[in-house]
Design a protein that fits this description.
The complex is a heterodimer. Chain A has 17 helices and eight strands. By secondary structure, chain A is mainly alpha-helical. Chain A folds into two domains: about 45-180, no CATH class; about 190-210 and about 245-489, Preprotein translocase SecY subunit (Orthogonal Bundle). In chain A, the strands form three sheets. Chain A has a three-stranded antiparallel β-sheet, sandwiched between helices. Chain A has a two-stranded antiparallel sheet with strand order 2-3. In chain A, helix 1 crosses helix 5 (about 105-130), helix 2 packs antiparallel against helix 6 and helix 4 packs across helix 13 (about 360-385). Chain A is globular. Chain A starts with a helix and ends with a helix. By secondary structure, chain B is mostly helical. Helices cover about 45% and strands about 5% of the residues of chain B. Chain B contains two helices and one strand. Chain B has helices at about 5, 30-50; one strand at about 30. Classes of the chains: A mainly alpha, B mainly alpha. Strand 1 of chain A pairs parallel with strand 1 (about 30) of chain B, so a sheet runs across the interface.
Amino acid sequence: MGWKETVEPVLTRMPAVRRPEGHVPFKRKLAWTAGILVLYFFLTNIALLGLEVGEASDIFGEFRAVLAGEHGSLMQVGIGPIVTASIVLQLLGGANLLGLDTSDPRDQVLYQGLQKLLVIVMTALTALPMVFAGDFLPAQSALTLGGLTFTGNEIQWLLFTQIFIGGILILYMDEVVSKWGIGSGIGLFIVAGVSQGLVSGVLAWGDQGLIYSWIQIITGETVLGSFASGEALYTLFIADGGGQLLALMTTVLIFAVVVYAESVRVEIPLSHARVKGARGRFPVKLIYASVLPMILVRALQMNVQFIGQIVNSQWANMPGWLGVYSEAGQPVSGFFYYTAPIYAPGDWMWWTAGVTQEPWMVMVRIAVDLTFMVIGGAIFAIFWVETTNMGPEATARQIHNSGMQIPGFRQNVGVVEKVMERYIPQVTVIGGALVGILAVGANMLGTIGAVGGTGLLLAVSITYKLYEEIAEEQMMEMHPMMRQMFGKE
Amino acid sequence: MDKGQNTGGLMSSAGLVRYFDAEDQRAIRIDPKTVIAVGILLGVLVQVLTFVS
């Protein structure tokens, strides 16, 4: 009797969205996806009932772009709980502690149930400290609904209930998109948030808006200063409310690099064992594990900062080595300062006025961030490949089952696996580390709309994947035979 | 054609949450329309209550 038998009755009964029977036409898929997206935007605009308006700072802070959702709305937790649950599953699965074989239907059911249960638990664990610890979601002192009057604690529970239901709803919205629509809901929400950030970064009528600040510069409202002393260049490239040229260049560069890197691949030639002349290629992409593992690394960093915020709000005389927080609630020294990722140029350019720390402290922080992202990126990429059946063994089996072989080698699963082992692990590690460097680099240079390097990387690569998927869908619409080839009914 | 990639119908693309084809008969099934309906109802309910309070 293992743990599987014990929990089976619970895990197999987790409510799931019904699967479509048969083929869903492309237009219907598009409609479901659009419908969920509209619902998501609608819910991000509904403010929580009983929330004191104003003051409160977003507990996710700079991670909001990656975790989607909206502070103070029903979508408060965003995809945070899903990501945290995924980290737990990745670590357990990657270390093979679960003992679940994802090619066995019974274990698949258990895996899905466990995943769902973990997300629900994590939603509660994320929502509880948000409402009850610190001042992240201050409750109103009194609330009257019809004849009922709620006070203090009751309003906090009311807030918690709303956030919790919102969090569960995000999980099911993702499931609807995954089963009935195109791509995944999580990807959709991240892209939605980042795109919103980018668009408002260009159009916003204020200091952070690109067009607005250029009008200010052209009309002479913003004083450039002299070019000789470099003051003008500083205004044009870096300064807040300046020309934002550096951010613009970084944003465009990230777009270009990601789209280019998507096409960098090692192609392993394949030929069909029986049909002569039928050839194919198996691509091992540079960004093989895609950018998604990056969310997990960032989420780990976020959780450290999250703990820091809570400790800070609960423990008045926290020792200095652990963390010193500014009035605005930002870590300025200690452990929580060094482990905080770099979000924007203002966090590390120590020659500017915004940085109060010593240069060596900033250096340590950059080094910690870079090390964490590069090593973490590589490790999570490896786990990701293993748990999503993209590893040498799983791909070799898939290639073998589709009747293909590598020309010049024996037709044998083991042989294909050997060849795959020469490429997949190396490419995965290099790709993971590269994405880590890109994310930190983009954050250091800043991006339009302050969406952050990770957010931008994610948005671009998800959109690219979505484009590929839509192309594939349309091909299947046109040639029903293709469905069989792609293994879909 | 990227053959080896999507075969088996196991993977939902690029998702943090993985859904398999296998389903248990005992599981509670939700219609996707129900999810959307619950979402809209929740939003409208909270908004209306906010106006009332």
